[in-house]
Structure formats: structure tokens, C-alpha cells
Amino acid sequence: MSEPSIITLHEQPALVIAAEITASQIAATLSEILPRVHDYATVFGNTVAGVPFTRYLGYTGTGLLRIEAGFPTLESLPPGDEIQSIVLDGGEAISLIHTGPYHHLPAAHATLDQWFESTRRRAAAPRVESFLDGQRTLITQPLAPE
Predict the structure, then answer these.
(1) Which neighbouring-strand residues pair with 54?
(2) Would you say 21 and 65 are in contact if contact means Cβ atoms under 8 Å apart?
(3) Is the pLDDT of residue 126 over 80?
(4) Whole-angstrom distance, CA of residue 73 vs CA of residue 89
(5) What is the 3-state secondary structure (H, E, C) of the chain?
(6) Superfamily name with CATH number, domain 5-142
(7) Where are the domains of the chain?
């Protein structure tokens, strides 16, 4: 795992499907959602502009994890059925790259949590996991101004 570093993100249009799930359902849910979003994006041509991602929005009152999963796109596209058109946040962000199996990602998230504690910085938007390849995941979280 890389060390946390501050980067600059640019606003990015994207298509996503939202879900409320348990943590144990993440992998199965992503394997269902991501192909559907990708297929929808290709209806508009070659519009996918990057790797798939999951954005973690928090928990419901009943303890379910709220996520959005999808793909960045070259431009804003119209929503369809349960597919939403969003813009991923730009600005200063903390990031790190996790290398290894998906089930070890909680340790990377804990590293970012510790970074927030030690620096007293605050998040400005939800955390995002971008799946770079089978072994590497970029985790980013936009930062509130100091």
C-alpha cells in the first residue's frame, strides 16, 4: 500500500447505479451493477472515460451501506431507468493506492482514517475506490478547505 498523498481531482461526469447493501454484498453487487452501467454508457458511443469506481455514501438508519457504482464518462449523459448521471467532486483530495486482494481494502481505509485523525483535516465528499486493475485500487477522498 502506498502512503497517503494529497492530489488534485478534477470534476468528472459519471454514470452510476445506487444501492443499499450489507458489506458482504459488495462484490456481488458490483459484479451486477458495473456491466449494466458500462453497457448503458456504450449506447452513447465510446463514452467511458476511465476505470470503474465505487463511491461510499454512508449508512442507512437500518445499517445498510449506501453506495454508488459506475464509470466516469467523457461528458454528462442522460440518466436512464435506475442509472443516474452525477459529477464526481474536484479539488484537493487525499489518496493512496492499495495493492493486493479486495478483501484487504479495509486496512487501506483504516490508513486513511488514521491520516484524517492525525492531520485533523475533514472530508468534503464521499470516499471513492477506483479499480485500476486486478491488484490495485486507488482510494480518494475530497478534502474540505483548511
Answers:
(1) 69, 129
(2) yes
(3) yes
(4) 14
(5) CCCCEEEEECCEEEEEEEEEECHHHHHHHHHHHHHHHHHHHHCCCCCECCCCEEEEEEECCCCCEEEEEEEEECCCCCCECCEEEEEECCEEEEEEEEECCHHHHHHHHHHHHHHHHHHCCCECCCEEEEECCCCEEEEEEEECCC
(6) Regulatory factor, effector binding domain (3.20.80.10)
(7) 5-142
Q: Give the model's confidence band at 46: pLDDT under 50 very low, under 70 low, under 90 confident, else very high.
A: confident
Nearest Cα to Cα of residue 68 among 112, 104, 79, 101 = 79
Total residue count of the chain as it appears in this document: 146
Mean residue pLDDT of the chain comes to: 94
pTM of the model: 0.93
User: From CA 114, how far away is CA 130, in angstroms rounded?
Assistant: 20
